[in-house]
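Tutorial, part two.
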Amino acid sequence: MIDFSKIEQYRENNRIEAKKALGGLPRSIWETYSAFANTHGGIILLGVEEWADKSLHTVDLPDPDRLIKEFWDIVNNPNKTSVNVLSTKDVFVQEVDGDHIVIINVPRAERSYKPVYVDGNPLCTYRRNGEGDYRCTKEEYQAMVRDASVKTQDMLVLNEMDLTVFNQESVRSYRQRMRLSRPGHVWEALEDEDFLLKMGAVGIGSDGKKHPTSAGLLMFGNEYDIVREFNAYFLDYQEQYDADTRWTDRIISSSGDWSGNVYDFYFRVYNKLIQDIKVPFKMDGGTRIDDTPVHQALREALANCLVNADYYGRQGLVIVKKRNSITMSNPGSFRIEIDAAKSGGVSDPRNGAMLKMFNLIDIGERAGSGIPNIFRVWREQNWTTPDITEQLEPERTTLTLLFSKSDDKKTAIKSDDKKAAIKSDDKKAAIKSARQKEEIVAYLTDHISARSADIAELLGVKSTRAKKLLSELTAEEIVVAEGGNRNRTYKLKA
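Running the prediction step on this input gives:
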């Protein structure tokens, strides 16, 4: 929370918006309300102005209680806002140096409430970035609408398609894997059509006939049929071991020499991911066990990437394996807070039917423990903490897994080609830093100043990583450093 006694040390950012409001509620407050609710939440300050040096200063509001009443009257008016995401404790008066200001804490809206728009017009949907509030594109709006549905988007029955879209080899392979995972299952004796119906790959359409669902098409369809429904569908796996070569090995869904569906992509890619994993095998009763927690975590990560992708999104799904890292990037933002996902216990997949299909062959985790398990395994290996970032335009979620020791830089660049590894690390650092820098700025917004140890604890990273991020923010003139090495503190630049 903001230390209001030091408000002049704060700056407007992705989480703070200041407005004088001496003439009543500013009209622009509703754009900010929508933007905060549709992004990561934020604080609106009424009775605060921004000076030329970007510092914030209070201006005594003549009647803050009237402003609050006016705010509640309007935010509860469905002709003005599509939904009120606030509770009474989110709006209050604060006295600062004898001045009275109004604080409005806007939380991140639950996905079922999004998009949060104003003026009774869905086109007036806003989001927040470093530049302030911006009107959402049609694609961003549509993505929020899809995610708001109670049903996951892969449950849609595709009435214009018939069952010939299924790749029979994919279906046969899946059924064989399920027999091995669940011998004697009650569905084992069913014909393919009835089997696919039971598992949600087939549904009954408006014409009373059987048609593929979106989940069935994605999992078992042929690529040329999949792109009829999902225009931007593209699965891409790359191995980048050579700095002078864009990729040394590649699997793409559009190559035409395999089905191109999600199910087959999973196994082709997983077998590539584990080829170079140097994790000691274990023994159980004299039997060698090659399936280590690292292998299990990689299965979780890959399945998580595939079942949470927004296949209606603008860009495809990309997985990149380098000498010392794996990056998985899928279209679509997180449906829950990233911190909540890391904590576990909450499962809200974008494609629930696909998750069920993976679960039936013992892949994936329904209880919301997949991401915490990945973080736990990396911690047990003493590897650098995995990083999850969200990109808004276009919407993407990226998971970066490093196989370097968290406290050993030499391990991170240990390869046959040091130049390639260094270049790779630089690119990975750039991908990782976006989300972490935002967290640092938000923290400094609330705490005025911090030591590198505070930032390391905040992000769950080693001190070296925290110092690197702070140095980058300093070079970008977002943060300033004060004091010597041992007593150095950081704060937002005035």
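Residues 39 and 127 are 6 Å apart (CA to CA). In part three we will examine how such features are distributed along the chain.
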